[in-house]
Amino acid sequence: MKLIADGGSTTCSWCLLGAGRPPQYFSTEGYNPYFWDTPAIAASLARSVPPAVREAPVEAIHYYGSGVLSAAKAAVVAGALRQAFPQARQVDVAEDLLAAARALLGHEAGFAAILGTGTDSCLYDGQRITQVIESLGYSLGDEGSGTSIGRLVLRDYLRGRLPAHLAGALQEQYRLGDVSEVLDRLYNQPLPNRFLASFARFAGEHYHEPYCQQVVERAFEAFFEQIVTHYPDYQHQAFNCVGSVGYHFRDKLAEVAARRGMEVGQILREPIEALVRYHESVTGV
Predict the structure, then answer these.
(1) What string of DSSP letters covers 208-232?
(2) Which of 42, 178, 231, 270 is paired with 88 by a 20 to 30 Å CA distance?
(3) Which pLDDT belongs to residue 135?
(4) Which Gene3D superfamilies does the record associate with it (predicted)?
(5) CATH numbers and ranges of domains, the chain
(6) Residue 164: Cβ within 10 Å count
(7) Taking a C-beta distance cutoff of 8 angstroms, is the pair 203, 155 a contact?
(8) What Cα–Cα distance (Å) separates residue 253 from each residue in 105, 132, 213, 239, 262?
(9) Which helix (H) or strand (E) holds 24?
(10) Three-state SS for 159?
(11) Going along 146-209, which residue ranges are E strands?
C-alpha cells in the first residue's frame, strides 16, 4: 500500500492506495517546514491520521508539500513521516509544485501554478520542472495568493481605507485589536501566513462588493506582472493552476489571464485526485 499526500501551508490532503480496495481520502493540517519542525509534524500526524490508516501496511509514501525547497526542509518532513509510519520502506518528499504539474499536465509539457495560501509556478517538460520564477514567500512576494489578498485587505483596514461597512464587518468577524496587536500577531506569533490568508476568506465572503473584486484583481494582476509574464513565450502556454484561491476566484483569474493573452486550461481546487490517478498510472513513481 502507498500514501499520496499534497500539503499546502494550511491543509494537507491524503489518499491511501491499495490493490483491490477503494482509495481512502483524509486530511490533516498543512506542514510547511519553514513553520513546523519534525516533532510538531509527528505530533500532529499522530492526532490527525485515522487509526485505520496508521495501522495499514504502508510500504511507500509520496509526499508533496509547500516549503519543501531544499534537502534540509525535505528532511524535516521525512523525519516526521518515518516516525508516523515506521513500516514504510520508501519515503519520498518533494515540493508541492511538482504535484501541481503532475496533476494538471500528467506527462505533457506546459505551464503550472499554485494559487492557494501561497503561490508558485513553473514550466514542466512532462517529467520534471524545467524553470521556476521564485515566489519568495509571503513577506517578499506570493503575489496572487491568499496571503497577498489578505495583506491588501488588512492593510487597507489598518490605514482606514476599507469602506466603512466592510471595516465594521471585518472588525466584528475578527475582533482585531489596535495596530500594535496586529503587528505582534504578524511578527511574533506562529503561522503569520495563515493569519494573513484568513482575510482572503473575508474578501470571498463579500465578493459581491466592488472593493473585494478590485482587491482580488489587483492581486492577480501583480501575479501576472511579477511572475507569469517573465516566463519565455508565456502567451503560447495555457494557464493551468491548482489551489483554493485560483479556484474560488477563477472567473476573475480567467479575465486577467485573457488580458495578458493567455488561454485558460485546467483550474483545480485540489490536485489530490488527479495526483492519485497519476500515481496509479505510473509504476514505481
Answers:
(1) TSHHHHHHHHHHHHHHHHHTGGGST
(2) 270
(3) 85
(4) 1.10.720.160, 3.30.420.40
(5) 2-99+272-281 (3.30.420.40), 139-217 (1.10.720.160)
(6) 8
(7) no
(8) 19, 20, 11, 10, 11
(9) strand 21-29
(10) coil
(11) none
What are the φ/ψ torsions at residue 111 (nearest 5 degrees)? -105, 135
User: Grid coordinates in use for 5?
Assistant: 499526500
Single-letter amino acid, residue 87: Q
Q: Apex CA 236: angle with CA 218 and CA 243, to 5°?
A: 45
29 backbone dihedrals φ, ψ, rounded to 5°: -65, 160
CA atoms of 7 and 27, how far apart (whole Å): 9
Helix (H, G, I), strand (E, B) or coil at 152: helix
Strands annotated E in 35-163: 60-65, 90-95, 110-115, 119-124, 129-131
How far is CA 221 from each of CA 6, 145, 183, 212, 258, rounded to the nearest angstrom? 27, 11, 26, 14, 11
- Measured distance CA(143)–CA(198) in Å, rounded: 16
Strands 110-115 and 90-95: unpaired
CA 208 to CA 200: how far, in whole Å?
14
Longest CA span, the chain: 59
What pTM was computed for the model?
0.80
User: Of all helices (H) and strands (E), which one includes residue 137?
Assistant: helix 137-140
Burial class of 200 by CB neighbour count within 10 A (0 to 12, 13 to 18, 19+): buried
Q: Is the distance from CB of 89 to CB of 97 less than 8 angstroms?
A: no
Q: Please provide residue 87's backbone torsions phi and psi, each rounded to the nearest 5 degrees.
A: -80, -15
- 242-272 pLDDT, tens digit per residue, is 999 999 999 999 999 999 999 999 999 988 9
Do 64 and 275 touch, CB atoms closer than 8 A? Answer: yes
**What is the average pLDDT score of the chain?**
90
